[in-house]
Design brief:
Blueprint: H1 8-16, E1 20-25, E2 30-35, E3 38-39, E4 44-49, H2 53-60, E5 63-70, E6 79-90, H3 94-106, H4 109-112, E7 121-135, E8 140-142
Antiparallel strand pairs: 1-2, 1-5, 3-4, 4-7, 5-6, 6-7, 7-8
Amino acid sequence: MSIVKFSEKEIRFLNYMRVGHLATMDGEDIHLVPICPVFDGEVFYMGTHAKTRKVRNLREHKGATLILDQYSEDWMRHVAVMMTGTVDIIEKGAGFELAKALLVAKYQQYKELFPINEGESIIMCFRPTKVVSWDYIAGELTEPK
C-alpha cells in the first residue's frame, strides 16, 4: 500500500490541528478515541500507554481510520481530513526516540504530565493509504480515486 500525497493546504491543516480521532476495530466493535498526533509530512505519530484498548486492537488488526477536523457552528465552514490506513506500533529504539521528540516538541504535556517512556508507552505510526478531505468554504472536496 502506498502512502498518499497531501496537498500543501492539507499539510498546513494537518500540522495546525492538535486533536483528532482514531478508530480501531477489535473484530466486532469500533473503538473511537481522541488522540494528539504529530505529522511528519508522510505519517502521523501518536503516543499512548502500552496497555490501552486501541493498542490491543491494533496488535490484532492494523487497519485504522484517523480524522482531523475543525468544527464551526456555521456548517459551511467545516474543514476535515479523514484517512484510512495501517498502524505500526513502535515500542523502542531509534524510531521510538525520533517520534517521541516530534511529539514532545508539539505537545508540552508529554514533558512532565504524560511522559512517553519505553516499556510503559508505545508510539503508533499511522500510514494513510486513502484520504478524503473537505473544505466547504473553499468549495473543495477531495476523494480517493
